Amino acid sequence: MRKIHQYAIVLLLSFGVITTMNAQNKLMDSQLGLQILDFIEQSDELDYLSADEISDICIDKKSFSKKSGVTHVYLYQTYKGVKIHNAISNVAIKNNKIFHFKDNFISNIKSKINTLSPTLKPEHAIQKTASYFNINMAASSKSIQTTKNKNVFFNKSLSQESIPVELMYCEDAAGNLILVWDLNIFTLDSKHWWSVRVDAITGAVLQQEDWVINCSFESAHTHVNGVALPVLKEENKGFNFEAEAFLVDGSQYNVLPLPIESPNHGNFQVVTEPADNLASPFGWHDTDGLSGAEFTITRGNNVWAQDDLNANNGEGVSPDGTLSLNFNFPITTLDQPATNYIDVAATNLFYHNNVVHDIFYQYGFDEASGNFQFNNYGNGGNDDDAVFADVQDASDTNNANFATPPDGFNPRMQMFLWTRNQLPTNNLTVTGGTVAGIYVSSNPSRANGSDGLGNITGPSIIPVTANLVVVDDGTAIPEEGCDALINALDVAGKIAVIRRGSCAFTAKIQNAQDAGAIGVIVANHNNPANDPNYREYINMYGVTDPAFTIPSLFINFEDGETIINAIKAGENLSATIVENGSFPTDSSFDNGIVIHEYGHGISTRLTGGANNSGCLNNNFQMGEGWSDWFALMLTMKASDVDTDGRGIGTFALGQDINGRGIRTRQYSTDFSINEYTFAATNDDRVLGQDDDGDDIILNQQVHYIGTLWATMLWDLTWAYVDKYGFDPDFYNGNGGNNRVLALVVEGLKLQGCSPDFIDGRDGLLAADVALTGGENQCLIWEVFATRGLGVNASSGDREVFTDQVENFDTPDPSDISLANCSTLNTESFEENIFKIFPNPARNSVTVLMDEEMGNVTYNLVDINGRLVLSESSNSSRRTILDISRLQSGIYILQIKSAISSITRKLIKN
Fold it and tell me: Where is the Secretion system C-terminal sorting domain (predicted)?
């Protein structure tokens, strides 16, 4: 697969440049390193590495998984002390033996290096980057930290955050290793966070990604990777903390507790003292590891939840539970301005960040593995990286994101209001004349040209009642109000009526306000075929400085013409602008979205080790899939059925609980609901064009690829639940859902840097060996093979988008790795004995045998393992199976005789 265009890259990209190279940990420097060194030198698969290349391998990080007993060691490749971008391999050691090695090393390094020394200074690389993106850099960059091969600069005229600049090599499309300066710039308008690699010789920008990606509504989601860069961070010094056996702090929270997914799925409930004793031993409001809360607001060791109504990522307001930690804030309806219930939203966001932290701690996302805590209580990893969670962030709408820098630096979750589900409402009442009545319109916009979200950012000035006046700006189309109004005396003290067209809404409203209007009605332009979908036009008012002091709303063409023509005919009309509701949805109440966002932090920190946030930056972009799957897992209920259709973000989108949500398919094991197999990664249909006129291609969309991966994980979940049952205890249960959670967390640690679907599958297989000795190898193979990720599947050339090869075969049953499981066929057979056609089939399928096989049994099993058809034939070389009554989908046909057996995928159209 070729590299995805920058507009489609998920915002889970490299922030790994913050790690320094001044204290390289060579393999020969420790006993653990010597063990790995011996393995590398003895391995036939790694014999492509020269002695010099092996000597330049360093240990980046190690962690121990309590669940599996595995020590995970992450290695990075260097050349003469300079790091090679994303050349990271990982080793898994259990019982003092290496049982898994994921190789991502580069061979023949010396022949690929273009130079040893930079001619471009790091500060000049910053200048080149600013010039490349046409950013005006008003001041020079100041160096605030310098180590070998690494500088950190600060330039408040260029970037909101510190600018790390690190010397490294990166691989180009031809396989050459180019010496570059790797740096990151977060632009002042927050629209871009550029991650670039600048040629250290020529100053050319060789690679670029935008960490701020504005996705389309269907994949309404962005991910930013990186936050403030403190100058110095120190690893925990290993203090010993002793928590109380049972924490009693009296805390209570009015929230939508798991497994409730949203207000559509259940009711608010008061939860008391929910902190887990293992994961949060001093409670959720602690930071010093001593008894007693340090904070009475929604802030503590794992997360700080606050509002960001000013869209400045600063210190907003957090609800205060007082010394009693009572966060039981009342809420009766969501049909009100969002700021009215912001304390409840922040509490729910705080609660679920903590709950997800505590649950995944049980499965191995702990301090040593890079989880998010201010204080690691002496349990390894780097401290001071609790989540900053922003509720009702005003910098965007219809979206959410999560920023994941490396271990020791704070991630940020931004939760926005969703307006896409807003409907127009009766905000305009006209009295007098022949057109009196109530009119449908968008929500009134208030001060600061607010976007109709119902948030009062200025004085409360609604309702407004006054006579109506059509504006006149003295131009050819005077009602558009794009210039100063020549009928200002008539407009003063009135509600101005303006036609849409020719200039921005803000200009029209400003001109009316300058003329003394106390309110504005904007009517759609003279194209009734383009009448407003208020969900689309609700954000068209923009922002002004200083803020507007008058309300405004938007009506459709027909109503606008009716009112304007009546006024022009001399009718004396008055109107009242009110605020009747149809308010936005707060994504902080969509727990599935909250979990999804937090999930990006989990998958990013665990893939390639917690120091390497760039390891999910590849063309498969599977991070979206893990995040969807995490959301599904923690909202799973005992009453759920595998064939149910599960959507993501249905509440935020304004759908009922059976809606499709924000993905191209619901998640279900039923192929009539979700038919995706691995071949769907080749789907390169053009969906349209972006703002630059470039094609938007389906299989280059990160959420589409993520949906395919999550589909396979969801099938795997139900295979585990079918085998082990479901346990509603997400923390300490022993059901199939608990076991597959442990499997996936361990698989993330094992799959390696820049994984594709094959690597993800193999990581899970290795995780099963680590956790159980391999008792579920057959089950895992069968699930993935059913979705086309069988033993002979291929990801193809990474430079090509359409060459993935699906395969439905499981391994040879004689494979020693399958010794501990029994679900695959164990009898040998001759494949050429049987011929099965047609396939796909519609009403019937024929099985031909080349020789007499005696009594033969034909079992047709659906993808959930249920037997849907069974027939027997004695001494018949031709058998026709009637499948006309079966639902469309994929089935497994098992043909068994006394001397042989075969299993084949069968597709029913």
Answer: 836-907
Omega cis (within 30) before 811: no
Query: Which of helix, strand or coil describes residue 307?
Result: strand
Listing DSSP states for 845-883 in one string gives EEEEESS--SEEEEEEEETTS-EEEEEEEES-SEEEEE-
Q: What is the pLDDT of residue 351?
A: 98
Q: How far apart are CA 16 and CA 384, in angstroms?
A: 17
In this structure, what are the phi and psi dihedrals at residue 465, rounded to the nearest 5 degrees?
A: -130, 130
- What are the tens digits of pLDDT across the range 39-81? 999 999 999 999 999 999 999 999 999 999 999 999 999 999 9
Q: In DSSP terms, which residues pair with 143 in a beta bridge?
A: 153
Q: Tell me which H or E stretch contains 764.
A: helix 757-772
Cis peptide before 281 (omega within 30 of 0): no
On the question of pLDDT at 496 being above 50, the answer is yes
pLDDT class of 13 with cuts at 50, 70, 90: very low
Taking only the tens place, the pLDDT of each residue in 708-717 is: 999 999 999 9
Find the radius of gyration of the CA atoms of the chain. Answer: 30
The whole-angstrom distance between residue 362's C-alpha and the CA centroid of its chain comes to 22
Max CA separation in the chain (angstroms):
101
Residue pointed to by tokens 């990522």: 313
- Rounded to whole angstroms, the Cα distance separating 237 from 297 reads 28
Q: Is the dihedral of CA 283, 288, 294, 299 positive or negative?
A: negative
What are the C-alpha distances in Å from 238 to residues 234, 380, 407, 447?
11, 7, 16, 52
Grouping H, G, I as helix, E, B as strand and the rest as coil, residue 551 is coil
Least confident of 42-46, 142-146, 623-627, 834-838: 834-838
Would you give the DSSP letter of residue 529? G
> CB within 8 A of 447, min separation 6: which ones?
456, 457, 458, 459, 461, 547, 548, 549
CA 37 from centroid of its chain's CA atoms = 37
Report whether 787 contacts 678 (CB < 8 A).
Answer: yes
| pTM across the whole model | 0.77
Cβ neighbours, 10 Å, residue 66:
12
| Angle of the 757-772 helix axis to the 777-786 helix axis, nearest 10 | 160
Q: Identify the three-state secondary structure at position 507.
A: helix
Q: Which two tokens stand for residue 137?
A: 């850099």
Residue 229's pLDDT is 28
CB atoms within 10 A of CB 682: 17
| C-alpha closest to that of 627 among 91, 11, 1 | 11
- Is residue 11 within 8 Å of residue 614, measured between CB atoms? no
Which H helix or E strand runs over 389? strand 387-391
Poorest-pLDDT segment among 575-589, 632-646, 810-824: 810-824
Q: Scanning the structure block, which residue is given the tokens 């400003």?
A: 510
Cα separation, 562 vs 428, whole angstroms: 14
How, if at all, do strands 57-65 and 70-79 pair? antiparallel
- 406: cis peptide before it, omega within 30°? no
CA 404 to chain centre: 11
pLDDT tens readout for residues 540-581: 455 566 778 888 888 888 889 999 999 999 999 999 988 766
Q: Shortest CA distance to 523 belongs to which of 537, 535, 539, 510?
A: 537
Check residues 692 and 655 and name the one with the higher pLDDT.
Answer: 655
